[in-house]
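Input.
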Amino acid sequence: MANNSYIKKRPCRICRKWFIPNPRVGDRQKTCGCKECKRKWHTRQCGRWNRKNRTYFQTIHLNKKLQAIQSQDTPLQEPPPPAPKSGNFSKLPQEVIQEVIGIQQFVIAEYTVQVLLRHIQDALSKQRVDISTDARRLPP
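Output.
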């Protein structure tokens, strides 16, 4: 058991009020115990975990799409079933592309394009911030 004299007061990471941590939790306690502070800390930590493990959710999302397509496939159907609708950024005819390369390959290609577009948009928004801060420093 932790000794009570060993545990010192510390500021809450959310509201910055000083508190004495629970002796059973000790150094692991980061918030004062208020429900609002606990909820905000949990939200912050979940967001941090999601940013670190982004590929985990991307893989799950892509696997679900591919499984949905495989469950739709039946050998009796002549025309291929349509791929699940998602953010279609191109004006290309989806039915023609699906006939040529297949539904699964189309879903993977569409997913890859979406990821690339997201990365490009992030890079452009960062450049926009850099340009605007540089423009403020220039003399008129």
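Residues 103-137 form the longest helix (35 residues).
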